[in-house]
Design goal:
The complex is a heterotrimer of chains A (220), B (225) and C (379). Chain A has 220 residues and is mostly helical. Chain A is built from ten helices and no strands. Chain A has a single domain, classed as MetI-like (MetI-like fold). Classes of the chains: A mainly alpha (220), B mainly alpha (225), C alpha/beta (379). Chain A: Keywords: Membrane, Transmembrane, Transmembrane helix, Transport.
Chain lengths: 220, 225, 379
């Protein structure tokens, strides 16, 4: 408890280039960019594979691979190969690890829509794209949002670890704290990251409330 | 540095079992310990807890909420917090990872029990199974595939997540990443990634095999379709 | 519901074949043949039922009409045009389509579900919704349900929405693929009656697929029995089908009681009525109360000679203690009684064979649809 007071009570932690606000913004920036790029890649791809039924194997393999690949190892390897110092290489593993959860859930969501619904949609004369966007996506939306949420949490988490390879953000408090054995910083940073992760979680819950039709929400 | 090859095979042979605490085989052992103990603990806790949630549905909402929160917390966050409690011991990695496996396994157990078709449950009741016997002989076996699917996810994630522990000094094979980073040396990093992925694939394969042995009917059923 | 074919229009009101199957074959890549050289003509403005055991290609045949499946060879003409020449989506927007589980959009309210095709056709929202509300009432749904989501409706209600949705853009053709198979028998009967009522108003060209021969007999103006392997076994009016199945397969598929079921197609209006006997207790409004037997009132059976079939009349006779059926008019007032002898006189006239009611009695079915010699109906 006293560590928390030490950390959050310390005025020096609230200002300057190494203060909490700047670190938080850095964290949000890296996470946001990585998440957006991952979503832009994975959502359309998942819709495509889910709608056409092609590439299901790649989707499953990518999901398993993302789970098995050690985050820290990937980060260290990519940054070493690409050269230390810039932020761009760090984004690569962040994106790579965020794509599979979105891809899998979008794919499964679209694929899992009741075949009768798909049949009825085509039968009424909707074209392929209309079937996708007017019938399949609205019904698959809860799963698509789940994938986005898992990816967002993954990104926030990986961005924390990325502090080790020189990225800014909230992870710095933890990594630097461990190095200097300043436990107040470690715990304080951990609490900040936890709060951010929970805020992301909450944000997606609210988003789901707003975007998912009540007719779909109550399906199960 | 420029002519540094991606892999120096001789480094692997020299460091595989050289008796030092940083020998690859030693790291592999500690990695296995820190990866599998959480899965076992998780199963031990998740089974009764999941059963309770299935039995008393009112428990499920708060449990699911808690589980969601645990799942959202980055591993490094939990490691850091436990570092101040359990210090530089494997427990600092094992306890948080147990929470992670719980976050996967409790829903798996609940879903697994929910996957028991109602007519199966009803006919078991009608034949005079008492609740405990029904649970052990009917409901749990039918729930096994779903529970095992959850166990596969938990195991693979656990194997991969242990390496993050390297940041707090307890990372099993993850230590190789720290070593490689500090010395700007690819070989240990690649060896670490390869071994972790290999372990994950092996463990996953064993669990698939276990499922086939434990639930021969599910395969027969799928083939029959 | 009485079973007389009251709704049957006479065959001469200008109906012509609207959908023509011309040597249509569907062969899948694995070599299985779903439909084998099918040629038939579906009359316009009437219900044509495709019936047969599973694997007979009935659903495939239906789905080839709106190109959900494309034929391997042969042609399907819709109003004279080969459907293969029409863009599938455009074609489908002009054909109503109803499937087994309704396939409603779960994320849309009922009114918007019904208005799906009007929206696709570019109607403005107000007009489309007004049309949807019209149809919701037409299919017998409470307009209050319009703002609900599909999951809030029962299976039978969802199926009604499915029918309303198919009718929304007023297509001349309606394809119905086992639409009532997933609901319980009581609801199914209600939906069937509703469909017949709608059809008597709308006169659509309906192709209806079912595996239930009773449903086929009840709904079909024409019934096409398909053989396993996708061949047409027989196509005829339901009464002809019952009296003259072409082969053992059709006879077996029609099942037992063909003779009794045929009575559904004979009107009871020719039954000679006798004055009501003294022991029939009649209330002040001329409605029968019961038959006096040994000083107590016993229930009786009634039929309406104007609207009921001989099957209903015979049923009424069997329910009455003395074997006479009480004839009542549409308001339930006693007209007289039909004795067993009077019923028998009508039955004798139709025994052995029976034309479809819409055809005059002397115009028998064409020879090639008649039962081969020696395979006459056993009744």
């Amino acid at each position: 408890m006293s560590w928390l007071i030490d950390f959050f009570g310390n005025a020096a932690n609230w200002s300057g280039p190494y203060g909490i606000p700047v670190r938080l913004l850095e964290h949000l920036e890296f996470s946001g960019v990585a998440f957006l790029i991952a979503a832009l890649i994975a959502v359309p791809l998942g819709m495509l594979t889910g709608h056409t039924g092609r590439g299901a194997l790649i989707v499953v393999v990518s999901a398993n691979a993302a789970r098995a690949l050690p985050t820290l190892g990937l980060l260290v390897l990519v940054v070493l190969l690409a050269g230390v110092g810039t932020a761009a290489p760090v984004l690569i593993p962040l994106i790579v690890l965020a794509v599979p959860p979105i891809l899998v859930n979008t794919h499964e969501g679209i694929r899992g829509v009741d075949p009768d619904l798909r049949d009825a949609a085509y039968g009424m004369g909707l074209r392929g794209r209309q079937v996708l966007f007017r019938a399949l996506v609205p019904v698959a939306l809860p799963l698509i949002l789940l994938g986005l949420r898992l990816a967002a949490i993954q990104v926030v988490s990986t961005a924390t670890i990325a502090a080790f390879v020189g990225l800014g953000g909230l992870g710095r408090f933890i990594i630097d704290g461990i190095a200097t054995k300043t436990y107040a910083d470690v715990i304080g940073g951990a609490v900040l990251v936890a709060a951010l992760a929970l805020a992301v979680q909450l944000g997606f819950t609210l988003l789901q409330r707003v975007t998912v039709s009540p007719g779909v929400r109550n399906l199960r | 540095m420029k002519s540094e090859p991606l892999i120096r095979w001789d480094w692997i042979t020299r460091n595989w079992d050289n008796g030092s605490p940083s020998a690859i085989s030693t790291l592999l052992e500690s990695h296995l310990l820190m990866a599998f103990v959480p899965v076992l603990l998780g199963l031990l806790v998740a089974l009764p807890l999941g059963l309770a949630c299935a039995r008393w549905p009112r428990l499920y909402q708060p449990t699911a909420g808690l589980v969601n929160v645990m799942y959202a917390l980055p591993s490094l966050v939990l490691f850091s917090i436990f570092l101040s409690v359990t210090g530089l011991t494997p427990a600092t990695v094992i306890i948080p990872l147990t929470f992670f496996t719980l976050a996967v396994l409790i829903p798996a157990v609940v879903d697994g029990l929910a996957s028991v078709p109602d007519h199966v449950r009803q006919s078991a009741v009608a034949m005079g199974f008492r609740p405990l016997r029904r649970l052990l002989q009917v409901e749990l076996p039918v729930a096994v595939p779903v529970v095992l699917a959850g166990t596969r996810v938990a195991t693979v994630s656990s194997i991969s997540l242990v390496s993050v522990g390297a940041l707090i000094g307890q990372g099993g094979l993850g230590e190789l990443f720290m070593d490689g980073w500090q010395r700007q040396f690819y070989t240990p990093i690649i060896v670490g990634i390869a071994l972790i992925v290999l372990l994950a694939v092996l463990a996953d394969g064993l669990l698939v095999l276990a499922q086939r042995l434990l639930t021969p009917w599910s395969r027969a059923w799928r083939d029959a379709r | 519901m009485t079973t007389t074919r009251r709704r049957r229009r006479d065959q001469n009101d200008g109906t012509k074949s609207l959908i023509i199957f011309d040597g249509v074959t569907k062969r899948y890549q694995d070599g299985t043949v779903a439909v084998d050289d099918l040629s038939m003509e579906v009359p316009g403005g009437a219900i044509t039922v495709l019936v047969g055991p599973s694997g007979c290609g009935k659903t495939t045949s239906l789905r080839m009409i709106n190109r959900m499946v494309d034929a391997t060879s042969g042609r399907i003409l819709l109003g004279g045009r080969d459907v293969r020449e029409i863009d599938p989506a455009t074609l489908r927007r002009g054909i109503g389509y109803v499937i087994q589980h309704a396939g409603l959009f779960p994320h849309r309210r009922i009114v918007d579900n019904v208005a799906t095709v009007p929206y696709l056709l570019g109607w403005n929202r107000k007009k489309a919704r007004a049309r949807a509300m019209e149809l919701i009432e037409l299919v017998g749904l409470d307009p209050k349900l319009a703002t609900r989501y599909p999951f809030q409706l029962s299976g039978g209600q969802q199926q009604r929405v499915g029918v309303a949705r198919a009718l929304a853009a007023d297509p001349p053709v309606l394809l119905m693929d086992e639409p009532f198979s997933a609901v319980d028998p009581v609801v199914r009967t209600g939906l069937q009656d509703e469909l017949l009522r709608l059809q008597s108003e709308l006169r659509k060209t309906i192709v209806f697929v079912t595996h239930d021969i009773d449903e086929a007999i009840k709904l079909g103006d024409t019934v096409a029995v398909l053989h396993t392997g996708g061949r047409l076994a027989q196509m005829a009016g339901p009464a002809t089908l019952l009296s003259e199945p072409v082969d053992g397969f059709v006879r077996e598929f029609l099942g037992r009681d063909r003779g009794i079921r045929r009575l559904s197609f004979i009107s009871a209006k020719d039954v000679r009525l006798d004055p009501a006997p003294a022991d029939l207790a009649v209330g002040g409004d001329d409605r029968p109360i019961g038959l006096r037997v040994d000083g107590r009132l016993v229930p009786y059976g009634t039929f309406d000679p104007e609207s009921d079939s001989m099957r209903a009349a015979l049923d009424a006779a069997l329910l009455s203690p003395d074997g006479t059926a009480v004839a009542v008019d549409g308001d339930g007032r006693v007209l007289g009684v039909a004795t067993r002898e009077a019923l028998d006189a009508v039955l004798r006239k139709y025994a052995g064979g029976l034309p479809d009611q819409r055809a005059p009695a002397d115009q028998r079915a064409p020879a090639d649809q008649r039962a081969p010699a020696g395979e006459g109906s056993p009744a």
